[in-house]
Recover the amino acids of this structure.
């Protein structure tokens, strides 16, 4: 997860832990750090899920999403945009750039836990994945 807000990162880490997410959520305060991490682990055969804040000061989530989709190893990695923006242009741009879901950041930890549980349930329990060899 890339989000420039440390509080949002910590809340989401805690929520995913409570939701029995298969691995600890790794947080990055800059999209390029997330991209570097993905590149370091590109050869690993594991299921990855990326969450991006849309509005980050150094590198926007849109730019990072575009870069992720330009790398062949990550074309099929699910990317969820997690943003405070509910502007139709932001939502449309994110989908056009290749995000798989767009989630508006809620107010309150209970709502964050619901989102984490829903994401965990859908992407790791319900959704059918390619078999990685």
């Amino acid at each position: 997860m890339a989000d420039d807000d440390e509080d949002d990162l910590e809340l989401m880490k805690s929520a995913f832990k409570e939701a029995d997410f298969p691995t600890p959520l790794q947080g990055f305060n800059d999209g390029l750090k997330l991209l570097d991490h993905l590149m370091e682990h590109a050869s690993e055969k594991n299921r990855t899920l990326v969450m991006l804040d849309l509005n980050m000061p150094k590198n926007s989530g849109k730019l990072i999403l575009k870069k992720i989709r330009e790398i062949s190893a990550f074309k099929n990695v699910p990317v969820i945009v997690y943003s405070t923006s509910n502007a139709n242009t932001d939502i449309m741009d994110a989908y056009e750039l290749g995000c798989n879901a767009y989630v508006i950041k809620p107010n309150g930890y209970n709502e964050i836990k619901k989102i984490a549980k829903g994401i965990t349930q859908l992407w790791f329990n319900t959704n059918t994945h390619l078999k990685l060899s």
